[in-house]
Amino acid sequence: MEKLVNNFIENANAFDVDGMLALFSFDAVIDDVSVGDAFVGADDVRRYLEQYFVGYRTTTRLLTLEQQDAVTASARVDFTGNFGHETGWLRFKLGADGLIERIHAELE
Amino acid sequence: MTNAPSITSDAADQLAVVDALYRFAAGIDLRDQALLASALAPHAVSDFRPAAAKAGFDYPVIEGRDTIVAALSGSLATLDTTHSVTNARVTIDGDTARLDALVEAQHVARSDPGRHYLMKNRYDVELARSAGGWVITRNTVDNVWRSGDLTVLAAI
Question: Which domain holds residue B55?
Answer without folding.
Answer: 4-155
